[in-house]
Specification:
The structure is a homodimer. Chain A has helices at 39-43, 60-69, 90-100, 118-129, 134-145, 151-159, 163-168; strands at residues 22-25, 28-31, 49-52, 72-75, 108-111, 173-175, 185-187. By secondary structure, chain A is of the alpha/beta class. Chains A and B meet through strand 1, helix 5, helix 7 and strand 6 of A and strand 1, helix 5, helix 7 and strand 6 of B.
Chain lengths: 203, 203
């Protein structure tokens, strides 16, 4: 990406984001399905992995892009049909969430087809883990889903049990230290401090 | 913010984001007007400054919060009325943009009243500086403005001349090095490399 180009604006440097692209957290992005038009933009993210939430095989040209950029693909096949409404499988979202909060996979891009429902559910569950109040979680979901907002997704997010993930984190401490200069990170066994019980991490 | 609370979810730790809150870039956030309910959440951002885009005086309780948290306020008074439509003043947006891209002010929160129009215009101009294609810039604007999207704002963003800012950056090189492990930063005179002309910074 060129930010300074000697005062000239160069057409071929213009960056096209995927539909519904946004940053979720430092190192976590979300979007609709990226195509070749977006590869130039995606390069600027220095992605380490992609969390793909559809059951369909990943397109050949996207796989080639991932191989060239050394980006790992994590696929979690979730049906996306609205009619009849299919409830999002909690176990699959939980598995995706574990990949998502592992900073060894960052920077990571979450995407499904349109970046509204499946992606919105996963991000909503991440927000619950971050202790966001439910109205804030819903507002963010709806900002991306717009008129396509689904009540079944909101119910899924509301009832998703985040406690079990907190339990899982007993062994891998997710130490959130805030934004900006202080960065959150996961501490692993070999590099953790000398404590045997999870700590309450407050900022 | 507590991410691990010994398997217990503590009500009083729940975080309320301001309306229309989102991360724009690492170290840059946007939202609607934050109130006391949001101060707990804002603390987690470790803000260094706030770019406030309304002409009205900043509320007393917000000023107290800023003083307690050592957050600097930059106010740029832009009228927000839609009827009759007031065109956004380009000079003011340019001044705000210079504050915004100066990493010495990061982490920074941009807000106006609802986080739709004035904030949307400023973020839109930042995206032009980042060489986002105009359709991506508009899509992001509309995601936050929703049905309140204003054609005058889109026209403002489209015609906003970013070249003059690139000229301004001749003296302060904004070296964008990407996301994730590599961080963008501003280089200042005393720490810059030995070059007299702006460099093309590509990733």
């Amino acid at each position: 990406m060129c930010l300074i180009v000697d005062g000239e604006h160069q057409k071929d440097d213009v960056l096209v984001t995927p539909t519904n692209f946004s940053m979720v957290e430092d190192g976590i992005y979300r979007s609709g399905f990226p195509g070749p038009d977006n590869f130039g933009f995606l390069k600027t993210l220095n992605l380490r992995s992609i969390v793909y939430l559809c059951p369909e095989p990943y397109p050949e040209e996207n796989l080639k892009f991932l191989a060239a950029q050394n980006i790992q693909l994590f696929q979690f096949g979730i049906e996306g049909k609205a009619d009849p409404p299919v409830s999002v499988p909690g176990d699959t979202i939980m598995a995706a969430l574990k990949i998502l909060i592992d900073v060894r996979n960052h920077p990571v891009l979450i995407h499904c087809n349109r970046g509204k429902h499946r992606t919105g559910c996963l991000v909503g569950c991440l927000r619950k883990l971050q202790n966001w109040v439910l109205s804030s979680v819903f507002e963010e979901y709806q900002r991306f889903a717009g008129r396509k907002s689904r009540i079944t997704d909101l119910e899924f997010i509301e009832t998703f049990d985040i406690k079990s993930l907190r339990q899982c984190l007993y062994s891998v401490i997710y130490q959130y230290q805030g934004y900006g200069s202080k960065k959150r990170r996961l501490l692993y066994g070999e590099e953790s401090f000398s404590y045997s019980k999870p700590r309450v991490t407050s900022i």
